[in-house]
Prior knowledge:
Elements: H1 24-56, H2 60-99, H3 101-128, H4 130-138, H5 147-158, H6 161-177, H7 182-186, H8 189-202, H9 215-239, H10 252-267, H11 269-282, H12 289-324, H13 328-355, H14 357-365, H15 372-385, H16 389-404, H17 409-433, H18 435-461, H19 466-497, H20 503-528, H21 531-545
Helix pairs in contact: 1-8, 1-12, 1-21, 2-3, 2-5, 2-6, 2-10, 2-11, 2-12, 2-16, 3-6, 3-10, 4-5, 6-9, 8-9, 10-17, 11-17, 11-18, 12-13, 12-15, 12-16, 13-16, 13-19, 14-15, 14-20, 15-18, 16-18, 17-18, 19-20
Amino acid sequence: xxxxxxxxxxxxxxxxxxxxxxxxxxxxxxxxxxxxxxxxxxxxxxxxxxxxxxxxxxxxxxxxxxxxxxxxxxxxxxxxxxxxxxxxxxxxxxxxxxxxxxxxxxxxxxxxxxxxxxxxxxxxxxxxxxxxxxxxxxxxxxxxxxxxxxxxxxxxxxxxxxxxxxxxxxxxxxxxxxxxxxxxxxxxxxxxxxxxxxxxxxxxxxxxxxxxxxxxxxxxxxxxxxxxxxxxxxxxxxxxxxxxxxxxxxxxxxxxxxxxxxxxxxxxxxxxxxxxxxxxxxxxxxxxxxxxxxxxxxxxxxxxxxxxxxxxxxxxxxxxxxxxxxxxxxxxxxxxxxxxxxxxxxxxxxxxxxxxxxxxxxxxxxxxxxxxxxxxxxxxxxxxxxxxxxxxxxxxxxxxxxxxxxxxxxxxxxxxxxxxxxxxxxxxxxxxxxxxxxxxxxxxxxxxxxxxxxxxxxxxxxxxxxxxxxxxxxxxxxxxxxxxxxxxxxxxxxxxxxxxxxxxxxxxxxxxxxxxxxxxxxxxxxxxxxxxxxxxxxxxxxxxxxx
Length: 547
């Protein structure tokens, strides 16, 4: 699939022969490539979380790690991955399409060097001012002996993760622009490998050096960040990229990217800043609250990572290409198809997470230091996080499309409004519902953020084929409701037939119920003639049969 130039078939693989929009089956195949790799990464991420839950549960040490890792993760999500990808892919694709690979490599090199300078500066400042930064975010940790100091120590170890993942995201953007999706989507698996490996090898050794065992997890994250970058470099090298340590601040392509990143950091900030607000407020809700919310969000983020991010990743290069060709119809059709496919995949996942929240959490986490009381609290957070699943995924599709059309102001203003609304909602809801209110407020804001962005996209593009989107949405909601009823009924029946709380019984109870639900969903989708379901099914069938 390696393109030899801007007119190569791989570069045009998401477009029709006349330069129009990608057909749903083609979009499904591209999203399927990303989804397959992302699924592997997310599943290993669940294994990582299981290991951490077993060893550390929802303890003060786990709270300290979650806060420490949230700091570089926030900067990564805002700057390195979300905004940078949305700003870089359209610019790189435009250069690739109109000027060829040599020009694209030049702008790629400029961005890599700019990221090394900018994020490196952030890392150094963060290390120096780690203590006041942690006090700002989690000042109540000072009330627990050693908790604040541990959080500061872990923060200093974890901050270089930002630079590693920023450069990895730039490499990912170049590969995605060349329609190389699998390896970039698989690369985050290295973070999970690094953490799991370090936990197994280093946790027993940490006390010998006078360090808390949770330190091994921080070291593993850094090792994983190195691996995430290293896994992608051979693919980029084969495409013809060669790193050059040259930096020209006056480069017009770099100016274009950095200008969009500035707005994009704000525009893509809503979800991540809202999570940060949740974390800050949760630190005052007692030991375990930060960890409960973190575990719940990771479970909820599994379908987002597999479905929402996969579709958005496959959509962005196509939209960027249509934008470079000034094809409004192509952009409109691509976004509409992406949204319909997102609904078909995410609405059933939303219903499934709500219906099976408690058994899923118990199956994944409840062992070792993770107690039944932690399961109950994490389940409560997951139930309130789940409704935002569709909103998160829609935002991941919509925001980059604005940048592909060189409109960064609109999503920026919408994001600012979403952050303000989230702060107000969460300050109210946390007093009424405790940490559960933080999850609910975040979901409400995610749905509102998505709705506003889609309405504005509809106006800008002269329509988004709303009738087809609503028709597909109504059909999949009906099919998912039937699925949810079947899952509830079958789960209760399986528990009556096979009672028990050990791992084998829980596996049968959960996956048996999911199997019944998928059958009912497939039948419902067939009866209701949901075309996007057929596209997804054909893609899965091909991948199952592939050697």
